Structure formats: C-alpha cells, structure tokens
C-alpha cells in the first residue's frame, strides 16, 4: 500500500498541497523552501499513488547529510510508515556514500526522538538553543580582553576548541556556515574559512583564550546582523561580555549555542543591554553509517 521513491518533477504541485496541510509553522516554512528550490534529495511516500509524505536529504558535504522537512499526513501516522520511511532514507544515504546522517527536531518532540534513538540507533539527542536577541541601551563598545580573532593564530584557536568540553559534548558539531538550519562537523579547514571572514571574536586574558564566538554575517530584517554559529567559553561572565559587545554594534544578534543561555540573557535584559529575546530549543541526533 505504501511506497517510497525519489521525487519526480510532476510531484511538485502535489507536494505544495501537502505542505499547506502542515500546521507546524517552522517546519512548514522550511518545507515550502525545500519544495520550491530543490529537486535532488527529495523523496516521497505514496499510498495508492497519492503522495502522503515527504523528506529531503540535504548534503552538507561529501560525507555528511541531513534528514529534514520530514512530514507525513496525520491520518497515515501511527502505522510504522515514518519509521520505515526513515529506514529507507538511511539506505539512500549509504548509497550516496554518506558517512554521517543527522536529524534535528523540536525539544518537545519526544516521539521522533524515541524512534530515532531506540529504533534506528541514532545518537542520544544533543540540545541546542536558537536565540534572537535585540539590542538595548548598551554602552560597552570596547573591552580590554575581547578582540577580533586573528586568522594567523588559527592553530591556537583550533587547540582551544578541541580542549573545550562543549566540543566533546556536541561531538564536534557547530551550526553550519553553509545553511544555519543545519549543523555540521567542524574541522580545521572549516574553522580557517570562518575565521578568514574577520567576524569572530575571542576573549583573551594574559594570552590565554577564555572564550570564542564563531560568527558569520547574515541579512535579515533589513539590516546586517551577526550569526553566532557556536560559542565556547570558560564561564558565563565571559559569554555575557562577548554578547554585550556584539549588541553594542548591532541591532540584533542571532545565536545557535549548545549551552543554555537563558540566565545570561535575563541578566542582559535586566541591565538593559538587551531589549528582548526569543528562544527555541532543538535536539540534534546523528548516525554513523
């Protein structure tokens, strides 16, 4: 009754209609983007030749890929279709030569987490925080220990990241510079590329690195704003000082970090450095193929 197959161009109108039915707004927005802009990597579920589900295998590089924009009509859920469809995607990823397959879902979506971890043997969920912070009345425009990262000291920053507990806890992942809807493994070449953009900042005291924010610029809300791909730091004081400095020069800052920033954000809110913020919690799971 149910069949899994790659996307065909004639499927696009049916997929558009499928997306309209999705009531999960963040996923709905991403699904619309995928259906509009991609052909390669989309796979569909059919029931008696009617499309009732979809997923996209998005490649980060030759070795890493994502399962994203997964959606099955509610009437077809609870029948093992989603689990079987995910198993089909794992086989497709292996055929493509993918070594690491990841999936992200909302923190409260325990059903998907259960299926991925207990049935499909993905890793334990790693919690990430997606935050948008708006600048308040912040007069900290300089700090003696905060500086723009020097690409010439790439080796020192690479060593610092490797020693940091967040690197180990997140299995070496950061928010992807290619598409910040995904996460990817950071390596020496990626770090070199990020630092070469001259946006990242570090907290250095007596030649010892105490904090590092990996940053790229993004266009949004009609102004240019920094996107923090990951933050490594020794304590919350270091994190708050770096964030204060970013807020002093920008109308908003986007953060994607693996340490809970809520207490630090509330402090900045109380003191006036931040005007408001919004936060979403996601979990990331991965499977080595």
CATH architecture of the largest domain: 3-Layer(aba) Sandwich
SSE string: EHHEEEHEHEEHHEEHEEEHEHE
Number of distinct beta strands? 14
CATH superfamily annotation of the largest domain = Gcn5-related N-acetyltransferase (GNAT)
CATH class of the largest domain: Alpha Beta
Taking the sheet with the most strands, its summary is:
12 strands, mixed
Number of helices: 9
C-alpha Rg (nearest Å): 21 Å
Q: What is the fold-level CATH name, i.e. the topology of the largest domain?
A: Aminopeptidase
Ends: how far apart?
Answer: 28 Å
Instruction: Determine the fraction of residues in helical runs and give it as a percent range.
Output: 25-40%
Which word captures the global form?
elongated
Which spans have pLDDT < 50 for at least 5 consecutive residues?
Answer: none
Structure description:
The protein has 289 residues and is an alpha+beta fold. The protein has two domains: 2-98, Aminopeptidase; 130-288, Gcn5-related N-acetyltransferase (GNAT) (Aminopeptidase), CATH 3.40.630.30. The protein is 33% helix and 37% strand. It has nine helices and 14 strands. The strands form two sheets. Strands 1-2-3-4-5-14-6-13-12-11-10-7 form a twelve-stranded mixed β-sheet, with helices on both faces. The longest helix has 15 residues, at 81-95. It is elongated. The two termini are 28 Å apart. The mean pLDDT is 89.
